[in-house]
Design goal:
Arc Repressor Mutant, subunit A; alpha/beta; 15 strands; Rossmann fold; four-stranded parallel β-sheet; 3 domains
């Protein structure tokens, strides 16, 4: 490895490159206004890949250590004399993957309320569906001195990324509010397996036998967790599992893969070709369910007469759908409130558990057929 890189150090190579460049600036070997070597030259100097260099420079630019001139290169930035001083304030950074996402917008509302009650300032940053930007924002929050960080990560692997591992190893106060599968990392959220069970059990109790599950695509771990609850309910009520009733969206139509509404809508448009068809469908998310419902109504199907549906999340659009959607509601108020409470305790040095798992609830509306069978009032089952 090149000078400044230690091959036996477990620290990611791009972080070692960042540290070496910062060290050279501190020693005066690189001075403000000086142009640094090209990315190709740096890759050769450090004996690392070009991708590693690009990631290191991207982070240093986001931190304000470097700056770029289009078509000319990368330069050492002037040291900032106007850094934000947060020492007199209790401050939490909130890194959100998509500020427009209907589920996380509710979580943020309750995070803001609780932070205000406890006297915390809240700095909000949206990663705009960009993983590198998400990492840079976490680094930026740490550099300006926040006391803790709440993270709704973009990662759909639902495992700890390198920078979350670093926060954890350094015992920096953080909490995940997007699903985190790794049990050792700090997370507050819903019992997704139980939610899948609750939705499927409701269908079974209504007398449905051919119950399908609309999946976002193979490899999505969170969807698999919800599907496990679906399977457990079938098993406990002695209904045979049929893999033909598991439908995967977004695999042949890649343009739909990151848009849950379009995934559901596209599947609804192709529903008439299914043979045989389910008579009830548990759908991974409310956005997918609303998209599916819109397409089905356009195609002349009736809900719940032709097919009953249940979504998951409890977003506002579920209640406002053409046929109001029965859904599994995540306890967003508790998640938002507890996220701040947990951060507060960790800032104060309290030794608390890694995971806080909350029960979701079933909200019954028109789309599942229960109201036609029992009553016209809205029911809640928790």
């Amino acid at each position: 490895m090149g000078k400044g890189i230690n091959p036996v150090d477990p620290t990611p190579l791009y972080e070692q490159v960042e540290s070496d460049i910062k060290d050279k600036i501190q020693k005066g070997e690189l001075v403000p206004g000086q142009q640094i070597a090209s990315q190709n030259d740096l890759a050769r100097e450090y004996e690392v890949s070009l991708i590693t260099i690009k990631k290191a420079l991207y982070n240093l630019v986001n931190e304000g250590v470097l700056y770029t001139r289009v078509g000319k290169g990368t330069y050492i930035a002037e040291p900032s004399h106007k850094k934000i001083d947060l020492s007199a304030h209790k401050t939490i950074g909130l890194v959100l993957r998509d500020i427009k996402h209907p589920y996380f917008s509710f979580v943020v509302h309750h995070i803001e309320e609780r932070a205000n009650e406890l006297g915390f300032n809240l700095l909000l940053s949206s990663s705009s569906n960009n993983m590198e930007k998400e990492e840079a924002q976490i680094n930026r929050f740490r550099n300006i001195g926040v006391d803790g960080i709440i993270i709704a990560s973009l990662s759909l692997q639902y495992r700890a990324t390198d920078y979350i591992k670093k926060l954890h190893e350094e015992n920096f106060p953080y909490i995940m509010v997007s699903y985190m599968h790794d049990p050792e990392y700090w997370y507050v959220g819903s019992d997704h397996e139980y939610g899948g069970f609750l939705a499927t059990e409701h269908f079974i109790k209504l007398g449905y036998k051919r119950i399908g599950f609309l999946h976002v695509g193979r490899g999505n771990l969170l969807c698999e967790i919800r599907k496990n609850g679906y399977y457990r309910a079938l098993s406990e009520y002695n209904i045979p599992y049929d893999s033909k009733l598991i439908y995967y969206t977004g695999e042949e139509n890649f343009e739909f893969i990151n848009d849950r509404f379009l995934q559901g809508y596209h599947f609804g448009k192709s529903f008439k070709q299914l043979d045989p068809k389910p008579d009830a469908l548990f759908i991974h998310s409310d956005l997918m369910a609303v998209g599916f419902e819109n397409a089905m109504l356009e195609e002349g199907f009736e809900i719940p007469e032709d097919i009953a549906i249940i979504g998951f999340d409890g977003i506002e659009a579920a209640a406002l759908a053409s046929v109001p959607l029965t859904t599994i509601v995540q306890p967003v108020q508790k998640i938002g409130t507890l996220a701040v409470d947990i951060i507060h305790k960790r800032i104060e040095g309290s030794d608390i558990g890694n995971r806080t798992i909350l029960k979701p609830a079933l909200i019954i509306r028109e789309s599942c057929g229960a109201k036609k069978k029992y009553s016209s009032r809205e029911l809640q089952v928790g």
